[in-house]
Structure formats: C-alpha cells, structure tokens
Amino acid sequence: MDDLNDQFDGWPREVANPRVHATTRQVVDEAFAEEASSLTPLPLIPYSAVLTVERRVSKDGMLSIGGNFYSVPDTARRRTLEVQHHATELRIFEEGHLIARHPVLEGKARRRVDPAHRKAPPQRPALLPTSQGLRRPLDFYDAVGRRLAAEGARS
User: Fold this and answer.
1) Mean pLDDT of all residues belonging to the chain
2) How many degrees, rounded to 5, is the angle at CA 30 between CA 25 and CA 31?
3) CA pair distance 66, 83, nearest whole angstrom
4) What integer pLDDT is reported at residue 123 of this predicted model?
5) 69-106 confidence digits (pLDDT tens)
6) How far is CA 55 from CA 43, 52, 60, 77, 98, in A?
7) Pairing mode of beta strands 62-65, 89-94
8) 27-31, 38-42, 46-50: segment of lowest average pLDDT
9) How far is CA 39 from CA 21, 23, 28, 45, 141, in A?
10) Within 10 Å of residue 73's Cβ, how many Cβ atoms?
11) How far apart are CA 140 and CA 146, in angstroms?
C-alpha cells in the first residue's frame, strides 16, 4: 500500500504535470504557474448547488423525483409544481410559495408521505348499539318465511 501511495503521489509530479496538454498545447505546470496569481481561495461555506425542475403531481398526491416518491399537501391546487433538489433536502413550491420539504431518500422506489399533507378522513356516523338493531320480533320473520315457502310450494 505504501508503494501504491508513493506511485500516486509521484504521478502528477513526474508524468501528468510536465507533459504538454493535448487540448491547450501547453505544459500543465507552466500553465498553472501563469494562472496561480489569478486564483482565489474557495469560500469557507460550501457551495449549495440546487437543481430546479418541474414535476407533475400524481393522482395520489405524490411527486416522482430521482426514482422515489414524495407527498405534496392535499391542498395543492396545481398539477405541476417546482421542485428544488438540494444535496440533502427537496423543497416543493407552488406559485413561488414553499408548500413541502422532504429529506432526500436513498435508493429507488421508496415513498415518503408527510402525515400533515393528508386531510383527516370524514367522521363516520356512530353505529347503533346491537340491542336496537332489530325493529321487529323474530316471530314476524318466521311468519314471513313460512308464507313464502307455502306460496313457493303452490306454484
């Protein structure tokens, strides 16, 4: 491993930088020496690269981004939304207003649904207690059954 590291460290110094570059036709070390005074140091804060795209909302209120699915609020009115894809987070905008944020999912075909994006289902009416379920006595149903059976035997 030490030998490989030494070879790696020596390659730019002995092979890559002393050569004439195929495109610029300049020696790499010499070109760098000319440009070095014009270079400025990198900022202390890392550059935040953002990819902005538009995505169509599916019927189930999801956006497909990078092979994964992310929810949007049920209140979103537009079918096409703007998505800003940051390194670790997705930001979803409707008409310039931020409506959702999600962490970027690892892998493919994964789903992330923010529970706040879904409306609560409507309340169901309370079921009647079982003691009030029958409105007629069972004798009535017995009589109906006997009459239907007798009529069926006559025909």
Assistant:
1) 90
2) 60
3) 11
4) 78
5) 999 999 999 999 999 999 899 999 999 999 999 999 99
6) 33, 10, 14, 14, 15
7) unpaired
8) 46-50
9) 20, 21, 16, 17, 96
10) 16
11) 10
Name residues whose C-beta falls within 8 Å of residue 89's C-beta, 6 or more positions apart in sequence. 101, 102, 103, 104
pTM of the model: 0.53
For residue 8 the two structure tokens come to 């790696």
Evaluate if residue 128 carries a pLDDT over 80. Answer: no
Give the separation between CA 4 and CA 42, rounded to whole angstroms. 30
Which residue's structure tokens are 């956006």?
63
pLDDT at 133 over 90: no
Contact 111, 84 (CB under 8 A): no
Q: Are 16 and 22 in contact (CB under 8 A)?
A: no
Q: Using DSSP bridges, classify how beta strands 89-94 and 80-85 pair: parallel, antiparallel or unpaired.
A: antiparallel
Max distance between CA atoms of the chain, in angstroms, equals 114
